[in-house]
What we know:
SsrA-bd_prot_CS, SsrA-binding protein
Amino acid sequence: xxxxxxxRTVKKVVAENRKARFNYEIVxxxxxxxxxxxxxxxxxxxxxxxxxxxxxxxxxxxxWLINSYLPEYLQANRFNHETRRRRKLLLSRxxxxxxxxxxxxxxxxxxPLRIYFNERGRAKLELALGKGKKLHDxxxxxxxxxxxxxxxxxxxxxx
Length: 159
């Protein structure tokens, strides 16, 4: 048996929102469970989900994931799910209150970053609390990224 300090968390990433870190300044991240049907889980295990255009919102004291795309599971005939239905996110009451306060008072957004399966095989969503970037901030980010690439190339050539 391995010592406790050396345990690694194995996460099988199913879908990732790659533009989120470019369009938003991420302040904090949360791990939320997803309420899914059986065919949605099987579709996720095939790895064909898309959360690039999705967002999360709070309604009635609950957090919902809206506009996420989980394709239909081909082997399920009439018991299939809707591809773009609203999905409830499972968070503790304290986390829900904290997120609602940040969204309502500070004008922040709830951005889904990625869907993955944790080490127990449960589907989880990494949810971020962030502020939208302005155009000049996006330009600054891309300039910084380009400079880091050039710097790494130069260091690689010399050493």
